[in-house]
Amino acid sequence: MTLAQTNYQPPFNITRASHLVLTSCDLAKARDFYTDPAIFERDMERMLLRHWFCAGHVSSIPRAGDYLVVDLGTESLIIIRNSAGEVRALLNVCRHRGSRLCAARSGKAQSARLTCPYHAWTYDLDGKLLIARQMPESFRRDDIALKTLPVRIMEGLIFTTFAKDPLDLGIAADALARSAGVHSWATAKVAHRELYSIRANWKLAVENYVECYHCTPAHPEFSKRHVYARPAEQNVELERADARGPKRSASWCPTSTDMDARPEPAGNPSPSCAAPCTTESSAPRTTADRSRA
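-> structure tokens emitted (293 positions)
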């Protein structure tokens, strides 16, 4: 996910996404919260770089040396599979003069090495420095390596964070297992990946993405099919049934018609489903695949 500051202001107000279901009294913040560079830097420091974020799916790097490049603000990461089959997160910055190691969005490290295009410093798949040409005798190659970030894989999704002391992921891991697990995301494959820009301030794009208050007027066909596009109070019985009923198959997704006809359905539908359930593609879509400007 790439984030960039922009002064573009849409010609309408968008409600603040403090929770998934908004009411008309949740109003947008003052303009400065969306456009002030100082607030943007504070957001990056306190929220985006401090928290875990999804960098991709394990199916995108199936073999040793396969990598993805993921940007967050001005930071750039290499998500790579090492020779032992482990997923690593390396800063995409050579330790010599700070050049970017990988310019492509994805690829494969040739001969299991990452070579800087500037001075040819070369690293292995874990970030250890292997080659540094024409260095003095006092140079200690073993003391230098690419900076690494922690990695956590949950239901096939690769999470990492820039935080010095990473936040606990226990609650999030449990929620993701219960929602994405029923759809077998851990064994899914990415069928298509696309990066695109949105002509809007990044906060407005994120706010729109995480709430469905706009779904009924803006996406009427979607709202007819998807239970969680309905007002929260209409889903009280669904939540109660979810807590006590047996799981349905992963292909089942409740619709508005289902709810009207059966006010107390059994089952375990996923609250994180972001589109009407179909069989067109089983590939997960992640925030890392969405470039917002």
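Confidence is low (pLDDT under 50) at residues 1-24, 248-293.
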